[in-house]
UniProtKB/TrEMBL annotation, chain A:
EC number: 6.1.1.20
GO cellular component: cytoplasm
Cofactor descriptive note: Binds 2 magnesium ions per tetramer.
Originating species: Aminicella lysinilytica
InterPro entries: aa-tRNA-synth_II, aa-tRNA-synth_II/BPL/LPL, Phe-tRNA-synth_IIc_asu, Phe-tRNA_ligase_II_N, Phe_tRNA_ligase_alpha1_bac, Phenylalanyl-tRNA_Synthase, tRNA-bd_arm
Taxonomic lineage: Bacteria, Bacillati, Bacillota, Clostridia, Peptostreptococcales
UniProt family annotation: Belongs to the class-II aminoacyl-tRNA synthetase family. Phe-tRNA synthetase alpha subunit type 1 subfamily.
Keywords, alphabetical: Aminoacyl-tRNA synthetase, ATP-binding, Coiled coil, Cytoplasm, Ligase, Magnesium, Metal-binding, Nucleotide-binding, Protein biosynthesis
The reaction(s) this protein catalyses: tRNA(Phe) + L-phenylalanine + ATP = L-phenylalanyl-tRNA(Phe) + AMP + diphosphate + H(+)
Name of protein: Phenylalanine--tRNA ligase alpha subunit
GO biological process, one term: phenylalanyl-tRNA aminoacylation
Cofactor: Mg(2+)
TrEMBL record, chain B:
Listed PANTHER family: PHENYLALANINE--TRNA LIGASE BETA SUBUNIT, PHENYLALANYL-TRNA SYNTHETASE BETA CHAIN AND LEUCINE-RICH REPEAT-CONTAINING PROTEIN 47
Keyword Coiled coil: no
Stated name of the protein: Phenylalanine--tRNA ligase beta subunit
Occurrences of domain B5 (ranges): 419-494
Catalytically driven reaction(s): tRNA(Phe) + L-phenylalanine + ATP = L-phenylalanyl-tRNA(Phe) + AMP + diphosphate + H(+)
Keywords: Aminoacyl-tRNA synthetase, ATP-binding, Cytoplasm, Ligase, Magnesium, Metal-binding, Nucleotide-binding, Protein biosynthesis, RNA-binding, tRNA-binding
């Protein structure tokens, strides 16, 4: 019997060493350890033996059984690992092939620019205010201290709907509306479309956008105006941006200024973007003229304020290096897609 | 305003380099467009004298000149110019010299042109005689006698022959082009700019000499003046006898050229020079053409005609101010003189007019006549009447200096109400309050005095009187600016406003942003199209002749058809964009626009138009069809808080394919149906009109309505605890039966456990009878309280099938 056991073990060992598949190994297990397997067969034949012999043979048989079991499971592990590896090899893909595109759209660069400015000032407590595109001559010129014979009033400059109504040529038309409607003090931004009788070329469009900024309160100073715009310039064009305020003239502000920013392309040393000057003109601003406050019923002794008007297209064109304003209104998808 | 820095130095000392001059002038309020060097770029160009002119042996149009350039031997130079004469002083580009150019008839070359000895038609030419253009001066400033010819230099230069032309004539200068804002007409004059420079650099302003020597006759013996209209604020006349018309001296020509003016002759040049100096336009009449030696300033008679200096006959009206003599008009006041009183070569005695006319009247006259001149432009902007006398005196002084006439004593000056500058009270505290500064009174007073203002008063109150030339300072706030610019904007501190306010956003603002984000997430790009529209583009879009979309807000001064009216809908703009992209071979487009539309105010025609926001989506391309757009519309509206949607077939709206168009409908809180917009496949004719040669899809939604009906409140529901079961059904129904109707009827049964009904297949063709279609739905059943049994589900499902059989004659498909 003992020899039979030895033989079973030896055979199992040999067969396992030759086995190359999981199925083959499984067959071996059935053949040796299965219900009708060789080992079972031997154990079944133990009935005729004495208790001592039974005990002895039982121990040997168990030893063989566990030995074969170990061999089987290690063979199985090895084969499984092999199979897994083969599967991985088979399933290898070319990771450099393109992914399936998920298409997303982008906001128009004009919207993006407006939102960028709004976001800068939102965190400082500014509100957004809007007013009609079509507004009265009073709100647009008269209330803004614009002289009777100001060229902007001409039909060659501003679109008229009738004698008293225009397409606003600037968002400043909203100023007196805001003064009458809002409770003082306030800080607002007024983004919107504006229209002028400009023949379209690379830098002119009869339709364009402005953002008006308006602050009214007690003790608002020109220093506040400078500080607010300097902060905006740094956020829009980078932290190293410097600002320069030059005296200028607008009917609705006094004192008035134009703001230049240091050229973000060359940093101020002079390049084609800044036409060699190191500075780029960005916007007009000033302390709101008392006449404009009076038109809106504001107490000019108690309150002071400032106003800013900036061209959205101009900022967008400078920021993104767009050399023709007409591109912004052509809406070529290859153009818009670039503003991701 | 072109300012020669060398000329400016006649009135104020400037001791800084030109760049610093410019920078500081900008910061004190005189903005600069450009600063240009003139008189540079030449080397080895000599001053020469023409000693001999002979005909060229082989060319009719050429002459051979002997030019004295200081050496022992004259140079032989061939030229084609015909304005030269023996004894003329001229610029000579000798062998191996360089001129800035451009040469006659050639383009300008960077770095100039080298001139060498050569032969012209066989005759040696040892250089070139130059005209102003060849030496870098614009043709429009070339002196009249040198126009299109050689530059003839007036005066006697015999001691300087052979010297460098640019050095000996002191040509080098910087010309600064100042941008003068409309509030500062006083700066349209050299003295005005000198006043600014003096204040900026702390220097003293030197006024020109206007004092003439006494003569033996009085102006009033020759001329009398009568002013009959308020449009003339002042009229000053002086008389010059024995006038000799000749070329102006070099110094005067040089000044005019730098300022962009062409020297003509001494009398014209002097009046132009004084105009540039003071900003006061001047006019000279031949006294012999003034009938009765009497000037009457009055408005014209309507219907009269008058021939101005430019030989155009002009129709007058009774608002136009004229200068008349005892019999007839001789000039249009402030605009242009008449042909009948022009200075002639034989003129002996002239009347110098230095007058002040009301700016608005000159503007109106000039506009009605369509005639703008240097003088009218200046009057329009506003001139100080107190300048008249000084300017007239200055003209006389220059005549005396140039020895080109005899100046008679005194003037005839009609000035009924002399202009006085208003004294304004400006508070030190207010100025500092507005600027955010702490500038002491003494410093402010210093600024004012440097600008020739007088200051009185004490403590906080400064009583400031400006010179009358400054008409831009009627109020306290104007002095805030004067202090600010003199103090320097760059010296003001930077702070942030300390004013409490909470951010608020206008109607729709956040909704618009949400819609943009949602649509971008669906792969649509935002576009921005013009707010303009017109009837033609609506015709192209298939919009009916009498539809509401034609209630245009019309522009009364459009720039053309493109800007004729304001848009009432966004779709046509979208179609244009789709067409433009299609024509550029862009395979597929998904785009949207959120923008304002405008509708004529039908209730109050004089009131402002109605403005509202619309939203349009447009698309074409391989993966687009009606249902892809519908999917976008549904997802967008769901996100914007519109929960119940219905799509109602529409076959009458011309923009869209009659079988592929739907009105988008929801219901308001009262259960009333509200139309939110319309969508569909673009009608093939419309698509063709816009050059879209493929199926395209569009919608137009009324954004304000969406905002109004939006309910974005979120109420949490526990996710279902018990599993759901689904049952499919495939039915054969009539072709015309709408899926929406089937769904609506099923939903109307009110089966509590029916949670969802979803179409998953529509089939027509073999195995389905003609005029029928097979539709397959998946229905989901769930109970929130327990797991449904098969029996319960079957019972509900069968009732649905039965209802459909009964109601629509549907049969189950095997």
């Amino acid at each position: 019997m003992q020899e039979k056991l030895e033989k079973v073990l030896a055979e199992a060992k040999e067969q396992l060493s030759k086995a190359t598949s999981i199925a083959e190994t499984e067959e071996i297990r059935v053949r040796v350890l299965g219900k009708k397997g060789k080992l079972t067969e031997i154990l079944r034949g133990m009935g005729k033996l004495s208790p001592e012999e039974k005990k002895e043979l039982g121990m040997s048989a168990n030893k063989v059984k566990s030995e074969v079991g170990d061999l089987l499971s290690s063979k199985m592990d090895a084969l499984k690992a092999q199979a897994k590896e083969a599967k991985f090899n088979r399933e290898k893909i070319d990771v450099t092939e393109p992914g399936r595109p998920v298409i997303y759209g982008v906001e128009h660069p004009i919207t993006q620019t407006i939102n960028e400015v709004v976001d800068i000032f939102k965190s400082m407590g500014y509100s957004v205010y809007e007013s009609p595109d079509v507004d009265s001559v009073y709100n647009t010129f008269d209330a803004l201290n614009s002289p009777e014979d100001h060229p902007a009033r001409d039909m060659t400059d501003t679109f008229y709907v009738n004698d008293n109504t225009v397409l606003r040529p600037h968002t400043s038309s909203a100023e007196v509306r805001a003064e009458k409607e809002l409770a003082t003090p306030y800080k607002i931004l007024i983004p919107g479309r504006c229209y002028r009788c400009d023949t379209p070329d690379a830098t002119h469009s009869h339709t364009f956008h402005q953002i008006e900024m308006m602050v009214i309160g007690e003790g608002i100073t020109m220093a506040d105006l400078k500080g607010s715009l300097d902060l905006m310039a740094k956020k829009l064009f980078g932290p190293k941006t410097r600002t320069k305020f030059r005296p200028h003239h607008f009917p609705f502000t006094e004192p008035s200024a134009e703001m230049d920013v240091s050229c973000f392309k060359c940093g101020g040393t002079g390049c084609p973007v800044c036409k060699g000057s190191g500075w780029i003109e960005i916007l007009g601003c000033g302390m709101t003229h008392p006449h404009v406050h009076k038109a809106g019923g504001i107490d000019t002794e108690k309150y002071t304020g400032f106003a800013v008007g900036m061209g959205v297209e101009r900022i967008a064109m400078l920021k993104y290096g767009i050399d023709d304003i007409r591109l912004l209104y052509e809406n070529d998808m290859r153009f818009i897609n670039q503003f991701k | 305003m072109l300012v020669s820095v060398e000329w400016l130095k006649d009135y104020v000392d400037i001791n800084v380099p030109v760049q610093e001059f410019c920078d500081r002038m900008i910061m004190s309020g005189s903005n600069i467009e450009t600063c240009t060097e003139i008189g540079t770029g030449m080397s080895n160009v000599k001053l020469g004298r023409i000693d001999k002119i002979e005909k060229h042996p082989d060319a009719d149009k050429l002459v051979v000149c002997a030019i004295n350039v200081g050496g022992d031997e004259p140079l032989q130079i061939v030229t084609g110019a015909d304005n030269i004469y023996v004894g003329a002083y001229v610029p000579v580009a000798v062998h191996n010299s360089r001129v800035p150019g451009p040469l006659h008839g050639q383009p300008k070359v960077e770095g100039g042109v080298k001139i060498t000895k050569g032969k012209l038609r066989g005759v040696v030419s040892e250089g070139m005689l130059c005209g102003p253009q060849e030496l870098g001066f614009d043709d429009k400033v070339a002196p009249f006698v040198s126009k299109d010819g050689i530059w003839l230099i007036p005066g006697n230069w015999d001691d300087h022959l052979g010297e460098d032309f640019d050095k000996v004539l002191e040509l080098e200068d910087n010309v600064v082009d100042f941008e003068i804002t409309p509030n500062r007409p006083d700066c349209l004059a050299m003295i005005g700019m000198a006043r600014e420079a003096a204040a900026t650099f702390g220097e003293k302003l030197r006024y020109p000499d206007t004092e003439c020597q006494k003569t033996d006759e009085e102006a009033s013996d020759y001329i009398s003046v009568e002013v009959r209209s308020e449009f003339c604020k002042r009229y000053t006349a002086r008389i010059i006898k024995d006038v000799k018309i000749e070329q102006s001296p070099w110094w005067l020509q040089k000044r005019l050229m730098a300022a962009g003016m062409r020297p003509i002759n001494n009398m014209v040049d002097i009046t132009n020079f004084v105009m540039l100096e003071y900003g006061q336009p001047l006019h000279a009449f031949d006294i012999n053409s003034i009938a009765g030696h009497h000037i009457i300033v009055d408005v014209a008679k309507a219907g009269d005609t008058f021939t101005s200096l430019d030989e155009v006959e002009r129709k007058l009206d009774d608002k136009m101010l004229m200068i008349n003599d005892a019999e007839k008009p001789v000039a249009i006041a402030g605009v242009m003189g008449g042909l009948n009183s022009e200075i002639q070569d034989d003129t002996n005695t002239v009347v110098i007019e230095s007058a002040n006319f009301l700016g608005s009247n000159v503007r109106a006259t000039s506009k009605r006549l369509g005639l703008r001149t240097e003088a009218s432009g200046r009057y329009e902007k506003g001139i100080d009447p107190n300048l008249c006398e000084a300017a007239a005196d200055r003209v006389c002084k220059l005549v005396e200096m140039l020895g080109c006439g005899k100046v008679l004593n005194g003037s005839v000056d009609v000035y009924p109400s002399p202009e006085k500058a208003p004294t304004v009270m400006a508070r030190v505290s207010r100025i500092n309050k507005v600027l955010g500064t702490d500038i002491p009174r003494e410093q402010m007073e210093g600024y004012f005095r440097s600008l020739e203002m007088e200051v009185t008063g004490e403590g906080d109150e400064m009583y400031v009187t400006p010179p009358t030339i400054r008409q831009d300072l009627p109020e306290e706030v104007d002095y805030v600016e004067e202090v600010a610019r003199m103090y320097g904007y760059d010296n003001l501190p930077m702070t942030l406003p300390e004013c409490e306010s909470r951010p608020a956003f206008p109607k729709n603002w956040n909704m618009r942003e949400l819609a943009r984000q949602t649509l971008c997430g669906m792969g649509a790009n935002e576009i921005q199209t013009f707010s303009f529209s017109n009837g033609k583009i609506l015709d192209m879009s298939g919009i009916d002749e009498d539809s509401w979309e034609r209630n245009f807000v019309e522009i009364i001064n459009p720039m053309g058809e493109d800007t004729a009216s304001l848009r009432t809908i966004l779709t046509p703009g979208m179609l244009e964009v789709l067409g433009r992209n299609f024509s550029r071979n862009i395979e597929s487009v998904r785009a949207y626009e959120i923008g304002k539309t405008f509708m004529k105010n039908l209730i109050d025609p004089k009131g402002l138009p109605d403005e509202s926001y619309d939203l349009t989506i447009g698309c074409y391309g391989e993966n687009e069809d009606f249902y892809s757009l519908k999917g976008m519309v549904c997802t967008l509206l769901d996100r914007l808080g519109i929960r119940e949607l219905k799509f109602v077939a529409e076959s009458e709206y011309g923009v869209y394919h009659p079988g592929r168009c739907a009105r988008v409908v929801t219901s308001d809180t009262n259960g009333q149906e509200v139309e939110l917009g319309i969508m569909g496949e673009v009608h093939p004719d419309v698509a063709e009109n816009f050059g879209i040669d493929t199926r395209a899809y569009c919608c137009e939604l009324f954004f304000d309505l969406i905002d109004e009906l939006s309910d974005r409140e979120v109420q949490y529901h526990q996710p279902p605890k018990y599993p759901s079961t689904s049952r499919d059904m495939a039915l054969i129904v009539d072709e015309d039966l709408e899926i929406g109707e089937i769904e609506a009827q099923v939903n109307a049964m009110g089966i509590g456990i029916l949670r969802d009904i979803k179409l998953f297949d529509v089939y027509r063709g073999e195995q389905v009878e003609q005029g029928k279609k097979s539709v397959a739905f998946s229905l989901t059943y769930r109970d929130d309280e327990k797991t449904l049994t098969d029996e319960e589900t079957d019972e509900a499902h069968n009732s649905v099938v039965e209802m459909l059989k009964e109601k629509f004659g549907a049969t189950l498909r095997d």
